[in-house]
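User: Predict the complex.
Assistant: Input components as received:
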Amino acid sequence: MDRRTFIGLGLGALVPWCAPSWTSATSLENRARARSLGIVIGSMQPGPFNAITDVPGIQVGHVTLVRGDGPLVVGEGPVRTGVTAILPHGGTLSREACYAADFTLNGNGELTGVGFVRQRGLLAAPILFTNTSSVGNVYDGALRWMMDRDPGLFDRGDRIEPIIGETWGDFLNDTAGRHVRPEHAYEAIEAAQSGLVAEGCVGGGTAMRAFDFKAGIGSASRIVPCADARYTAGVIVQSNFGRRDQLRVDGVPVGREILDQMPERGGPRKNKSMLVVVATDAPLIPVQLQRLCKRVSMGLARTGAISSHGSGDLFIAFSTGKRVVLDQPVDAYALNNRWISHLHQAVIEATEEAILNSLTMAHSMTGRDGNTYHALPLDRLVQIMRAHGRIE
Amino acid sequence: MKKLHQEGIQIGQFQPGVRDSIADVEGVLVGHVDVEAGNTQVGLSVVEPYPLSEGRRRLYIGRWALDGGGRISGLGVAEDFGTFSAPIAVVPAPAFGRVYEALIHQGIGRDSGLSTDAGWPPLVMGMEDGAWNDARRIYESVRQRDLDRALSSASEAVLEGSVGIGHSLRAFGVRGGVGSASRRVGAQHMGAFVAANGGLPGDLRVNGRAVPTPVSTVGGPQEFIAVLATDAPLLPYQLRALAQRAALGASRCGLWNPLTRTAQICAFSTVVSESDASAAELERIPAMDDDGLDALFQAGAESVEAAILSALCEADPLELDGRALDVLDIRLLHAARQ
């Protein structure tokens, strides 16, 4: 791993089929999205970017912190972490909210700000993903951003908080050093943009792994035709869960056929977790969004996850279909429930595909004490899928 | 001597513990810190569920929240597993992230792996300061070291009134504050720590009697927080039930009213729930039958009610930027003696 300090910002325009060469001197792997390998998840069509940003208005930004290598020196490094920010729109979130709901599949994780989401059924803040030890700093920075954007934030009695989620990245990262500062959260929000979403070893997903392969950020979307309308449902994940033998790709037990490329050195890896944000422009009300949230579990299950005791599997879903101006009358529409199953299917497919993208787009990474997560080898993945008749 | 006792006010049917505070539940400590914020003071308070120096402990917890709302961290573990192990910090809302960070720092010192029996996740509860203090000023003023100071000052001598988070609280149009009370139920103890905030002028009831308070020009957020502790071996579902009924104590004195916007009560048991140290498959869980709960529910509600009234009695008057906040006129409580 080269010794330059690197801080990456934004990257909404990252070309999706290869990782930037700065990220790893030791691995010049070409990474690719699952679909471009010929893997087709489900039967619904993805949106143009096949990402959560296909839902109009959604913005995603990352700050990636990668510096140093060698033995762990708490407070110095090596640093492998960052922040990922997801905004439902580019306006003043605390004045114009979206209907929202959250769901806890397994509670061994943190997701701040859900009190307001539950009480009011609204998302009125940015959502940020980071590592476990940095939640406080990221909350702090996101709150400052909210106060700068909306100086009256605390004057109106709306108890809005930033939504901060975390997964544990200690295997590669100097977690105790808490290198993510409030200003990184601020930058990630400011860098958020529409378009292509950088995946893999970026933002909050920098040090994460799934099924004992390198993982991190992943995203996917589906177009959902409902009568005369066409809606979009998109998902972004920070994946950090699962054991190798559990991995399934479109049902194929890939994890049982790649027995090498296991994590190297280091101690036990713990706290496997999964953060998921679901967005749709279909006009759903909170009770419907809660149902949508639960379906994430089914997408997760299709990859082989078991939502273990140590996993923080926390999900949040929101609808951009109607902007709710706080303290004004609401003229809300709700999708007729006869169509909601299509959205359920979309969320399940997009969740499964987003997780796969987090694997196929992540490159190998070495961190503290020489600990290494190896990337899922794409050539062997394709070979296995072909052998199982899933790819021509 | 507590002013509430000096005035001879008795709340409920159960006897208070020796200190008539949450510290009557063995192992529970409370600490406060006062923070300079420009020309004013704010503060935060912490409830330590067990002395942190005694190592790891995982305790059961249950939460009641009006509409499920309120600023709080650590909900994933608290709700899905029904456990916690961190000090409960009650803080001004703008300081939430800062205090969370301080508790992470503290937690890393106890266990770099941030385990759920060594202070992770932090349990921070944020309170609305409303129009009295400047949110930006609070955000800039509360530092991580303030949380550390609150923890190091934690003791069994529970200070009440305008200390810690009590600085910026307003209730019934007068100065609110922090209060504490306890009740004995046979051999068991129940204790409450309350941030008495909210309530409308004219609504204060003490033993059923209306106690007038001046109609203040200083408005305030309708929000309160309470922490309940017990040495009864309650399971999470029983602690949720306890927290819910303890809220009735806030209703009885008028603090919880139809305009209350947010309210949270966390109730925990000091009986250790489970241990990582044991490799055995089965854990023996002390528990009690639901039949014994009624008395504990009653004691919980009484503790919360008494703690709120005690907070009002212990508060100091405040003048800031030409605005005054009076305290409750304790003499008016005489008519409410039983």
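Residues 340-360 of chain A form the longest helix (21 residues).
Let me know if you want any component modeled separately.
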